[in-house]
Design brief:
By secondary structure, the chain is an alpha/beta fold. It has two domains: 12-127 and 316-329, ornithine cyclodeaminase, domain 1 (2-Layer Sandwich); 134-313, 3-Layer(aba) Sandwich (Rossmann fold), CATH 3.40.50. 38% of the residues lie in helices and 22% in strands. It is built from 13 helices and 14 strands. The chain has an eight-stranded parallel sheet with strand order 9-8-7-10-11-14-12-13, sandwiched between helices. A hairpin with a 2-residue loop joins strand 3 (74-82) and strand 4. The longest helix is centred in the middle third of the chain and has 19 residues, at 126-144. The protein starts with 5 loop residues before the first helix and ends with a helix.
Length: 331
């Protein structure tokens, strides 16, 4: 067997590029991100993307200094191939981190050359996750929310609330933003940062809202269908586990559109717990290449209250990471 020379080893063992959250944020352009995500979601619906289901590994209590059930964390592993690269994201979801002054969600992304297997980049991906998640919510809102000036309600006050305020402003003129959080001080801080109004209750935030985004770690419903304005659009982003809920059954009785049908049926507590089946995938509704069916389906949803169930897909991470790398090459 011919062993590689030291020169060959050096060439094939280059250290990966490193991107901080700040670098990722600076590299991403919202309009370009949404344009690329639209294409990728259509390709996913057509079956052109290899995206295995995410692996989920709960942190075992007996191996950690965990005092209460609320402190238990979960690791999500999300791989996908997009173009000539494979990305793998590691996400730690630890609700108890709020008591440690740490983010409840921490994530890192590896980008691998699909030809050589080299890890070519590592990225902090909290900012990436927030931007791509909000971008997909905005894409769905642009397709399904009422036209014209809209009132926005954000249930949750973390990084996702900030990014959703930013991205929703890209697709609709926003009349005002109402923010609710289980922690009053967090709602006030978020509202001040994004130019919104902090509300005492989730119901106060949601009443008369045209667009509602649920962005929490809730395990039981915090949004009730009786609060929703007829024709409202809801981006249901939290509750990423099969036994977690953000929306009650009345809210889920409205037409549901999923970012990926198969994932929603296996991973979404809102979908599983309510027993509903999504009427369409977002990529199906976005697709302009299919003759009639997507447009007919989209027409059936016009004017209705629609729930968009977002699981947050690996392909969305891959699209954002690819844009970060492309921006780095042009500098």
């Amino acid at each position: 067997m011919n062993l590689p020379t030291s020169t060959q080893q050096a060439a094939t063992n280059r250290p990966p590029l490193w991107f901080s959250d700040q670098a990722v944020n600076e590299a991403l352009d919202d309009h370009q991100l949404m344009a690329e995500l639209r294409l990728a979601l259509c390709a996913l619906w057509r079956g052109e993307i290899s995206q295995p289901h995410r692996a989920v590994i709960p942190f075992a209590a007996h191996h950690c200094q965990i005092k209460t059930q609320a402190d238990h964390g979960t690791l999500f592993i999300k791989p996908v191939q997009w173009k000539d690269k494979v990305t793998v994201k590691l996400i730690s979801l630890v609700p108890g981190n709020a008591q440690r002054n740490l983010p409840g969600l921490l994530s890192t992304l590896a980008v691998i050359d699909a030809q050589t297997g080299e890890v070519i980049a590592l990225m902090q991906s909290n900012a990436l996750t927030a931007r791509r998640t909000a971008a997909v919510s905005a894409i769905a809102a642009d397709l399904l929310a009422r036209q014209g000036e809209c009132r926005l309600a954000l249930l949750g006050s973390g990084l996702l609330a900030h990014s959703h305020a930013q991205l929703m402003r890209k697709v609709r003129p926003i009349q005002d933003i109402r923010v609710w959080s289980p922690t009053k001080e967090n709602a006030q801080a978020c509202a001040q940062a994004i130019g919104g109004i902090a509300c005492e209750s989730a119901a106060d935030a949601v009443i008369d809202a045209d667009i509602v985004c649920t962005l929490t770690h809730a395990k039981a419903p915090i949004l009730f269908g009786g609060w929703l304005k007829p024709g409202a659009f809801v981006a249901a982003v939290g509750a990423p586990r099969p036994d977690w809920r953000e929306l009650d059954d009345e809210a889920m009785a409205n037409p549901v559109v999923a970012d990926m049908l198969e994932a929603a049926l296996k991973e979404s507590g809102d979908v599983i717990g309510s027993g509903v089946k999504p009427v369409a995938e977002l990529g199906e509704l976005l697709s302009q290449t299919e003759p009639l069916a997507p447009n007919q389906q989209r027409g059936k949803l016009k004017g209705k209250t629609v729930i968009f169930k977002s699981l947050g897909l690996a392909i969305e991470d891959a699209v954002a990471a690819d844009l970060v790398l492309s921006a780095q090459k042009t500098q």
